[in-house]
Design a protein that fits this description.
mainly beta; 40% strand; 5-stranded mixed beta sheet; globular; 3-stranded antiparallel beta sheet
Length: 127
């Protein structure tokens, strides 16, 4: 029997100048380990959305959580949004454009109209 273990990101980072892997220290409200989450880098922060937090492929536990990792401070924060958020999903992709992150496609346990349309989240809201 093979024991499954799951990592959370960013445990390790590739320094592309030195071509070496470097362990990342982190603090704060780190996301649960998941598969199929997606993220983008915007303004020195890594934004991560969704994923499947279950190790059992026959019993998925999809997430609609949004976490941000500050690359400078090494601090994780779970974000609360004021608008309607995309449905829980995994296997999706995210694209950054300006200060927005678009969540596209992926799979969900129960298909809804929101899984068929792109969603965006403004990552730098104006006061």
């Amino acid at each position: 029997m093979v024991e499954k273990t799951r990592a959370t990101a960013p445990d390790i980072c590739l320094n592309s100048t030195m071509i070496e892997w470097v362990r990342q220290a982190d603090n704060g409200n780190r996301p649960e380990p998941s598969a199929g989450a997606a993220g983008v880098a915007v303004d020195g922060k890594l934004w991560v959305f969704g994923g499947n937090t279950s190790a059992d492929p026959d019993d998925p536990h999809l997430s609609h959580d949004l976490h941000v990792f500050d690359l400078e401070t090494g601090f994780w924060t779970r974000c609360r949004t004021s608008a309607t958020q995309p449905c829980a999903r995994a296997g999706h992709c995210t694209v950054a454009h300006g200060s927005s992150m678009y969540v596209l496609c992926g799979w969900t346990v129960k298909p809804t109209p929101s899984t068929l349309n792109p969603q965006s989240e403004n990552l730098n809201p104006k006061p």
